[in-house]
Structure formats: C-alpha cells, structure tokens
Design goal:
The protein is α+β, with helices and mostly antiparallel strands. It has 10 helices and 11 strands. The protein is globular. Residues 278-286 have low confidence and may be disordered.
C-alpha cells in the first residue's frame, strides 16, 4: 500500500469478478464524511494515521492495524483523528455476501453482524489490504479467497446476530412510513411540518422517532438516500447532470458536493471507474 504522503487521494471502484462488493482505497486529511449509512457492510483497514468514527454509541478512534466494522443501515460519520489524516483500504461487501459466508462458517443465527465497531487486528487489516492488491492485479481466485478468510475471521472473533428491526410502537411505525414517503417523493419531499401532519403527529415527535429508528434526522437520511440513487444511475451510465436531477439534487454541482462527501470521490470519477470495470470485464470474457 502507498505511504501516507502529503496529499489526499482516493479510488472507489468495483472488481467485476467480485460483483457484490465495492472497494475504496484512500488517504484523507481535510475530508469529512457526514452522517450517512450503507445498504451493506463496511470493513475498513486503517493503514496509517487515525480515523475518527462517529457512531450512535459514541466516537471511536482507529489507528494503523485497526479494522472498522459497520453494519448495514447504521448511521455514522468519519474524519481525521490526527492532523496528518488517515489512510485506509475499505471493502463494502453486500448483505448477501456476508450472510452466505456466515451461514457456511459460523453458528450465528439470524442476520449476522459485528458486535464491536473497531478492533485492533493487524492480521485482519493485512488480509483486507491483500484483497485490494489481488483485485488490482486481476487475481480473482486470490481476491475471493482472501475476502472469505477475512470476513470469517472477523465474524468468528466479533460476530453476533443483528437485532431484528421490528416496528413495535406508533412512533416507530410513523418513522418507517416517513421513510417510505421520502423515498416515494425524493425529488419533491415535503417539509417536516407537512410530513408530520400527514402522519398525524408533531414535527418534533416525528424528528425524535426518526432519529431513534434511523440514527439521523430525516433531511440527513434523505441526502444519503439521494446519493445512493445517484450511484445506481451513474452505474447504469446516466450522465451526472441527469442523475443529479433524477435523484432530487438541484444540479450537477449540488450532487457533486454531497456525493464526494458521502462516497469519498466525485461522481465523474466514480462513473469512470465503473465504466472501466465494465469494459475490462467484457474484454476479459470475450
């Protein structure tokens, strides 16, 4: 892996032979990730500096040799914990991938997840960086093998069944319905007051219930959801300007600001990497 250096850099990509996983390798100094969540898991090996992660239970610090593990739909932030920033190699395996590995290699019942968000495990961190190295070299056998080894190691040492997300209270039901409404009206969402009125509650009651269920206020959740939609559109080849409007952003610069903050790279770079992956994959199968 590259050393810390003095400049920020990042590569967010997908290896076509491991289609259910994104990869990010980066060094950040000033960049901060706002509150957001992912559909799948985050497994990050810190290779230099210190990353500071804001989670519902508090702030965690991860230095070199640490692995950060974030379960699906857990709201979190990230920023540098020291002036020189942090460097890391991150895997974003899908829920389907982790579930399949857990079913084969562990005794966890129900949806598998990670009990602690940060562990000092230099061997697991090394395996994560080796997944990146193998993918970059086009070695699908090694990349897939190493991915399964590191997920198994982390699940066996720190795995647990994720709590079921059941809607028990009226507040939780209203939060879930608010989420559905925001997805349905992503390009023209209601105000908090109008949303609360539609659900028969007060703005502050809805805000409290939404935070309790999803870990962030509705406006932050909506921004994260819009970026997810924009990602899917970019992966389909939709131009960034069109993807911006379709996902509910004012224009391409508006998308660009939020996209880079949450994904870690600009929309254009993200789309170029996807196009390159697709082309490489097609050529490899020809």
């Amino acid at each position: 892996m590259e050393g810390m250096g003095t400049e920020e850099w990042a590569r967010h990509w997908r290896y076509d032979r491991l289609p259910d996983m994104d990869l990010l390798r980066a060094r950040y100094i000033r960049h901060t990730f706002p509150q957001h969540a992912h559909d799948g898991y985050v497994l990050a090996a810190v290779t230099g500096g210190v990353e500071e992660i804001g989670l519902p239970q508090g702030v965690e610090r991860a230095g070199a040799g640490s692995v950060v593990m974030i379960n699906p739909e857990v709201a979190h932030t990230a920023r540098a914990g020291v002036p020189e920033g942090w460097a890391y190699a991150t895997l974003y395996p899908s829920s389907r991938t982790v579930a399949a590995i857990a079913a084969e290699t562990t005794a966890i019942r129900g949806a598998a997840g990670f009990a602690e968000p940060v562990v000092h495990d230099p061997e697991a961190a090394r395996l994560i960086t080796e997944v990146h190295r193998a993918a970059e070299q086009g070695n699908a056998l090694a990349a897939d093998t190493l991915l399964r080894l590191v997920v198994t190691r982390l699940l066996r040492r720190n795995g647990a069944a994720l709590p079921a997300r059941t809607v028990r209270t009226a507040g939780a039901w209203k939060a879930a319905r608010a989420r559905e409404i925001l997805l349905e009206r992503m390009t023209d969402p209601p105000t908090l007051e109008a949303l609360a009125a539609e659900l028969g509650t007060s703005p502050f009651s809805l805000l409290r219930a939404f935070r309790e269920r999803y870990g962030m206020p509705p406006h932050a959740w909506l921004t994260s959801a819009r970026v997810r939609r924009a990602r899917r559109l970019l992966e389909e080849g939709v131009p960034p300007a069109e993807a911006a409007v379709a996902a509910g952003f004012t224009d391409q610069p508006h998308l660009g600001r939020h996209f880079r903050r949450i994904v870690g790279v600009p929309p254009g770079a993200y789309q170029r990497e996807r196009a390159r992956t697709y082309k490489t994959g097609r050529e490899g199968r020809a």
